[in-house]
Structures are given as C-alpha cells and as structure tokens.
C-alpha cells in the first residue's frame, strides 16, 4: 500500500469523543501513524506477516495501520473501555480483523501468541510521571523483533539511556523527528492547537524470543 493511500484511509477513523486527561489521551493523527507503520514495514520488514500489538491503542489508529500494511494478526490493548468501543467500530468500518483487550499495560502478563512487533504512542508522562517509560519497559519484554514508539524529542537522552541500560534493549535508534499536532482537547489548553516535537524510535529487544521469519 502506498503512503498517501494509507494516510487517507486512516483519516477516515473516528477519534476520542470524550478524551480523558488523566490517561493523556491524544489522537495519533493519520500523518504520523501512516509514516510510522510505513517505515516499520518498508525499511525493516517488521509488519507484514507479523503479529503486531498496539499498546495503549486508544481509537486503534496504529493497529489499523499495521493491519493495512499486511500484519498477520493485530492485537490492540487499552485500559479505557470507551476508546476500545471506538477502536472496534473503526476496525469494523474498514473491515479489519483486529482483536482488542482491555488491560492496564503496566499490569500486562502476556500469555498470548509470540508478538513480533509492538507499536505505540504512549502517554508522554506529563500527567503520570514515568508512564512513557512504563510502556516501553513492558513493550521490550513482549516484543520479539522490534518496538516502535513516539516520545518527546526533549526526552531523547533519557529514553535512550533507559532503554539500553534499564530495559535490556540491544539497540535504540531515532528514525526521524516529527511534529505531533495536539488539538485543543482539554480546558487547560490555551491555544487552539500546538505542535510538539516527537521522535519516532525503533528499539530492538536483546533476546530474540521468536523465529526471525
């Protein structure tokens, strides 16, 4: 699938109708989501015919992108039931066969199939300090091939150090810097929308838990 086609299809998805500030719910826009999954597949072969998990899936944008890029199976995990309802409707509308699980990522004990790749737009950790690192820690335990994640550019050194030193990643690479559009969703937002500089990371776990196929 071409990048423009992928972005156009993701642009049809419903987003949060009642976002929860305590969960730092911000929609992953079609521009970022399409580039994230397109890069994961076309530069690294980490999506097609792979089992992909979307951590903190929200309304399911990254999971939908993974399915459209040829994933064998996609599993979306989120703590919020309202988000999962929207994600299910989005998958239905695009006729995508995605499995959704309600669970707090930080308490996840995985007994499902071996996950090749985890994709995620975790909370930035501004409301719950360290939430972004909690997601990354669990993702690196679950993924057998790669983790793709978005983190504030301002936290780049911290993220790299934590991944390599604390979470057992064998590599941590910034693939590109992107502009994350944050629309005015909450009362404390003064501007109609704002841009946040984010890094698209690719992390590789230290131990290859699955078959490299």
TrEMBL record:
Residues 48-129 form the Methyltransferase small domain. GO terms for molecular function: nucleic acid binding; rRNA (adenine-N6-)-methyltransferase activity. It comes from the Eukaryota. CDD domains: AdoMet_MTases (cd02440). It holds the Pfam family MTS. PROSITE patterns: N6_MTASE. InterPro entries: DNA_methylase_N6_adenine_CS (IPR002052), rRNA_MeTrfase/Polyamine_Synth (IPR051720), SAM-dependent_MTases_sf (IPR029063), Small_mtfrase_dom (IPR007848). Gene3D superfamilies: Vaccinia Virus protein VP39. Belongs to the methyltransferase superfamily. PrmA family. This is Methyltransferase-like protein 5.
């Amino acid at each position: 699938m071409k990048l423009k086609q992928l972005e156009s299809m993701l642009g049809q998805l419903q987003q949060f109708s009642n976002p929860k500030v305590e969960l730092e719910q911000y929609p992953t826009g079609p521009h970022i989501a399409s580039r994230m999954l397109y890069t994961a597949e076309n530069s690294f072969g980490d999506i097609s015919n792979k089992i992909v998990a979307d951590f903190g899936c929200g309304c399911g944008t990254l999971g939908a992108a993974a399915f459209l890029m040829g994933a064998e199976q996609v599993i979306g995990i989120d703590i919020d039931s309202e988000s999962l309802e929207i994600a299910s409707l989005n998958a239905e509308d695009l006729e995508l066969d995605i499995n959704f699980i309600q669970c707090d990522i930080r308490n996840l004990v995985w007994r499902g199939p071996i996950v090749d790749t985890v994709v995620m737009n975790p909370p930035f950790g501004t409301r719950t300090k360290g939430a972004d690192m909690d997601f990354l820690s669990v993702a690196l335990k679950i993924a057998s091939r790669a983790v793709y994640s978005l983190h504030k550019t301002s936290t780049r050194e911290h993220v790299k150090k934590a991944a390599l030193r604390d979470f057992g990643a064998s590599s941590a690479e910034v693939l590109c810097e992107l502009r994350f559009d944050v629309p005015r969703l909450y009362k404390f937002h003064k501007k109609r929308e704002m841009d946040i500089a984010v890094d698209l990371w690719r992390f590789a776990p230290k131990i290859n838990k699955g078959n490299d196929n």
